[in-house]
Amino acid sequence: MCPHSLSLHTLEHHDAFIERHIGPSVEEQQAMLEATGFQTLEDMIQRTVPASIRCDIPAELDTPRTETETLERLKAIMSQNIVKRSMIGMGFTDAITPNVILRNVLENPGWYTAYTPYQPEISQGRLEGLLTFQQMIMDLTGLELANASLLDEATAAAEAMTLCKRMSKAKHANVFIVDEQLHPQNISVIQTRAEPLGIEVVIGDVASLMAQHNYFGVVVQYPDTLGEIKDYQALIQQAHEQKALFCAAADIMALVLLKSPGDLGADVVFGSSQRFGVPMGYGGPSAAYFATRDAFKRSVPGRIIGVSVDSRGKPALRMAMQTREQHIRREKAMSNICTAQALLANMAAFYAVYHGPEGLKIIASRIHRLTNILAAGLSSKGVTIVNTHWFDTLTLELGFARDAAYERAAELGINLRKIGDTRLGITCDERTTREEIHTLWKALLGETHHLDMEALDYQLIENGTPALPASLLRENEILTHPVFNTHHSETEMLRYLKKLENKDISLAHSMIALGSCTMKLNATAEMIPVTWPELANMHPFAPREQALGYQQMIDELDQMLRAITGFDAICMQPNSGAQGEYAGLMAIRNYLRAKGEGHRNVCLIPTSAHGTNPASAAMVDMQVVLIDCDAQGNVDVEDLRNKALAHKDDLAALMITYPSTHGVFEEEIKEICAIVHECGGQVYMDGANLNAQVCISKPAEIGADVSHMNLHKTFCIPHGGGGPGMGPIGVKAHLVPHLANHPVVQVNNDNQNNTAVSAAPWGSASILSISWVYISLMGGIGLRQATEVAILSANYIANRLNEHFPVLYTGRNGRVAHECIIDLRPLKERTGITEEDVAKRLMDFGFHAPTMSFPVPGTLMIEPTESESKAELDRFIEAMVQIRQEIAAVETGEMTAEQSPLRHAPHTQADLMDANWDRVYSREQGAFPAEWLKDAKVWPSVNRIDNVYGDRNLFCACVPVEDYR
Ligand SMILES: *Cc1c(COP(=O)(O)O)cnc(C)c1O
User: Fold this and answer.
1) In this model, does residue 195 exceed pLDDT 70?
2) Which of 518, 612, 664 gets mutated to test ligand 1 (max ligand atoms within 8 A of its CB)?
3) Is the pLDDT of residue 720 over 80?
4) Closest atom of ligand 1 relative to the 713 alpha carbon
5) Cα distance between residue 369 and residue 455, in whole Å
6) What separation in Å is there between the alpha carbon of 610 and the centre of ligand 1?
C-alpha cells in the first residue's frame, strides 16, 4: 500500500480510486520494477525521461478524492443547471432514449469500451449496427451510399462542400452557395473550412445567388432553420445544368414523412441523427450522417462499412475502401476523420430498429400533428406565422411582444429561440405533449385563450394537413429490411443487442493494447454522470444562466488541463484529435497572417507521424515537408535543422508527437522546438501520447505552442467502438486571439468574430464530465502514478518480449516510453508469417491485436496502459510467446506458413464443427491454445475476412443473408 492511499484509507469511505484505476498492486509494481532492472518508479523515471523536460506534480491539481465524494461534488456542481424543456431547434432536439438502448448500449461497457473495428473478426456486432445505420440513412435520404457517421452536422456540411469541390464537373467554378437559412453553426464551420482552401462562400437566397455566380456546389437546409419546407427540385435541376452539385442538410425525423432529397435529385444529403434517441448533452456527442451517390463512393469522407466474405465464404463485415483515408493517403486523404461517433450512430440505428418504420411514422406524425395544433391555435388568435409550410418548427412574427412572450415561456419552463428582434422560433419534438401545447398557448396568448385542442385537432384532420407541401410527401416505403421489422418487443430488442455485443471484444473481456490509442480503464464512476438529466437534457444554445453547472465543470476541467499541460488557454470545441490538429493549425495560420507573415506555409512533419497530421496540414493549405527519422526512431535533428533553415522564410509549423510515435522520449525535443522557433515557425505537438507525460513533463514547457489532448485516450473517455471523443487544444497566449469561437454562443470574449470548428460551442460537452471525474478522482498524485505505471508496464512488456520479438526502438538506457514496437519483419522474411497472422492469432487467445503497421509497416505497437494488472500483462505475454513458438514451427520446417494455425486464425466454432478437419495441428491447438480459454473463450463469429474481395465488390447496405449469397 503506498503511503498516500494509506492516509486516505483512515477515515474516508473505502472507495479511494487510485488503486482501482491502476492495475498492478504495489507488490506487482515492485516485481515489474525488478524484472525490468529498476529500483523504484522514481529511479525508472530518471532513467527513461530526459531530465531537461521533467517537472513536478503541478501544485494546482487537487489531492485525490474518493468515488463517493467526487460524484457528490459533481452532482452539486451540475445541479446548478436549470433543465428546462428546450424547444429551440437549430439542429438539437430533445429525444426519448429507449431505456433498453440507454442501459444496454449507452451505459454498457460491452459497447462503449470497444475500439474502432480495425480487427473486424471480433467486431461484427458493432459493424452490423453501423451497417444498419448506413441502411437507415440510405432509406431516409434516398441516396445510394451512406457512411458510418461523422462528428457533427456542421463538420458534415464542410465535408459536403469539399466533396462537391472534388467531384463537381464545374472545374473552373470556385463558389459554394450557402442558403442563408442554414443553421448558423453550419454556416460558420463552412466558412472556417472554406477560407484556407480558397473556396469563396456566398450566403443568401439560393435562387438569386445561383443566377449570379459561377458555382460548383449549393447547400440548403431541409426543412430550413426557420422551419420552412421548400421544394428544391427545380433548383437542383438548374444546378445540374451548371455541372454543379446540390447538397441538403436534412432533419432525420422530418425525412420520415417528407420526400427524400435524393428523390428530388440532391447529390449529397447529410445531417444529425441526434434526435433518434440520443440525448442533446449540451452539444454532444451525437452522430452526423452523410449520404451521396454511388458514383462518388471513392470520394466519401469518413468510414464506410461494407460486406465481404470470410475464408469460409460466409458474409462478413469490415471497414471498406480504407485507401481513401488519411492513414494511407495522408495529405491527399478524402477527409481527416479518425475518431468519429460510432457509439451514437449505433444508438440511432437501434432506435430505428426498435421502433421500426411504423413506430417512426407514429413518432414523426405525432410531432407534426402537435405542431399543427399549436399553429392552428396561434393563427386563430391572430398570431403571424412566418412559415407557409413546416414539419415541427414554427417561426412567429411577434413584433414588440416578442421578448415578453419569450420570457413568459421561460417562466413556464420552456426555452424558445429568439430570431432577430421580433421573431420567435418553436420546435416541437418527441417529448412534446398536449399539456406543453397548452403551456405554449398560455405563454403566447395569455391565460384566457379559450382554445379547444380537441376541436382544433378535429378540424385539422377533417381538412387535411397542408403544412407539409403535397408535392413533398413521402410516397415510398422506408426501412423494409427485416432488421427494422423484427425487434419491437423489449425482449427481442434486448436479445438482439446482447447478440451483437457478444460478437465483439471490448475492455470488458481483455486488455486492448493499442499503441497510440491508450485504451485504459473507463471507470464506471466516470461514466455515471453522463446520463444524469442535468447533463443529458441540456440544449447547447440554452441561455447561459441555465447552464451554470456546465460552465463550472468546463472551467474546472479547463484549469486542470492547463495545469497538466502548462498552456495558457484551452479551446474545448474540437470533437476529436484530428479536429484539434485542424483547430490548432488554423490558430497558427491566423496568427502568422495577423503578424503579416501569411506567406509562411511549410509544415514540417516527421515520416513517423500519424496520418491525421499531414491531412490536417493540407486542410489549412500548408505544404508538407517530411523529416527523416534516424535508426533509433528519433527525429533526425540534422535533417530537421537543414529543412527548417532551408525554409526559414516560409516555415509555418512543425508537427511532432511526443513521446514519439516510435515510443521513445527523444532527448533533443527542446532543441527541436528551439530550431523551429528560430526559423520563424510554431510548434504543434500531437498530444496523442500525453499519457506518458501527465505530471512528469508539460508540453508547453518543452516548447510547444499548441497541442491537442485526446480526452478519449489519456483522460478516460471510452472509445465507443470508433467514437465519441474530444480533442481540446491548449495554446500559449499569443494564439488565444486565433482560437475558434461560435456564432450562437460566445465562448471567448477575446476573439468574438472568429468562426467555429464544431457545431456546438464546447464540442461534445457532456463527455467532458468523464475527464473531469477522472482527474478529480486521481488528483495530482494519482495522475503522476498512472503515468509512471504506464511507462513501467510498457517497459515490462518490452523487456519480457524482447527475447522473442525484437523491440524496434528504445531511447536512453535501452528504455521505451509508454508503448513499444515489436518487429515482426525478420520473422516474416524467414517464414512468411505476417503481422496480420499474429494479430488474427491473438483473437484465438481472446485478445484484440495491438496497433498493426503503425508507425512502421510489419510491426505491432503495444501500449498496455497503467490500468492492466500484472496478471493480465503476463497473460498477454504468454500468448505472444506461444505465438512465437508457433512461428518457430514454421521456421524449423515442421509445417508451412499456409498450414500453420497462424494463417488459419482466427478459429471459429464452424472450424471445429467441420467434419473434414484436415489441419496439421489439432482442433485443440487451433481454438484452445491456452489453458485459460477453457474457462472463458470469446469466439470470433467469422473466419478471416477477405478485404480485397469486399472492396472489389463494394456493398454497403443490409441485405438478407440469403440474397447476398
Ligand atoms: C489517435 C491519434 C490521432 C488522431 O486522434 P483522433 O482523436 O482519433 O482524431 C492523431 N495522432 C496520433 C499520434 C494518434 O494516436
Assistant:
1) yes
2) 612
3) yes
4) 1
5) 13
6) 7
- pLDDT, one tens digit per residue, over 96-125 is 999 999 999 999 999 999 999 999 999 999
Give the global pTM. 0.97
CATH fold of 777-932: Aspartate Aminotransferase, domain 1 (3.90.1150)
Distance 770 CA to ligand 1 centre (A): 19
pLDDT score, position 14:
78
For residue 441, the one-letter residue type is W
According to DSSP, the β-strands at 851-852 and 729-731 are: unpaired
Judge whether 103-120+142-296+342-354 and 777-932 match in fold: no
* Strand partners of residue 319: 305
Distance CA 486, CA 504 (A): 22
Taking CA atoms, 851 is separated from 165, 277, 614, 822, in Å, by 34, 33, 20, 11
Spacing of C-alpha 764 from chain mean position: 9
Q: Is the CB of 661 under 6 A from ligand 1?
A: yes
* CA separation for the pair 122, 126 (Å, rounded): 9
Architecture field, domain 103-120+142-296+342-354: 3-Layer(aba) Sandwich (3.40)
Report the nearest atom of ligand 1 relative to the CA of 725.
7
657 in contact with ligand 1, CB cutoff 6 A: yes
* Ligand 1 in reach of 339 Cβ (< 6 A): yes
Q: List, for residues 657-691, the tens digit of each pLDDT value.
A: 999 998 889 999 999 999 999 999 999 999 999 99
Exposed / middle / buried, residue 489 (Cβ in 10 Å: 0-12, 13-18, 19+): exposed
Atom of ligand 1 at shortest range from CA of 657: 13
Which stretch of 630-634, 729-733, 839-843 has the lowest confidence by average pLDDT? 630-634
The domain locations on the chain are 103-120+142-296+342-354, 356-472, 533-770, 777-932
Closest CA to 611 of 195, 839, 324, 287: 324
Homologous superfamily of domain range 356-472: Aspartate Aminotransferase, domain 1 (3.90.1150.10)
Look at ligand 1, atom 15, and give the residue with the nearest C-alpha: 516
Residue with the larger pLDDT of the pair 4 and 164 = 164
Which numeric CATH code is attached to 533-770?
3.40.640.10
- The residue contributing the CA closest to ligand 1 atom 6 is 577
Q: Taking the CA atoms of 444, 447, 448 and 454 in sequence, report the sign of the dihedral they define.
A: positive
- For residue range 520-571, list pLDDT tens digits in order: 999 999 999 999 999 999 999 999 999 999 999 999 999 999 999 999 999 9
pLDDT (tens digit, 9 = 90+) per residue, 198-229?
Answer: 999 999 999 999 999 999 999 999 999 999 99
Average pLDDT on 599-628 reads 97
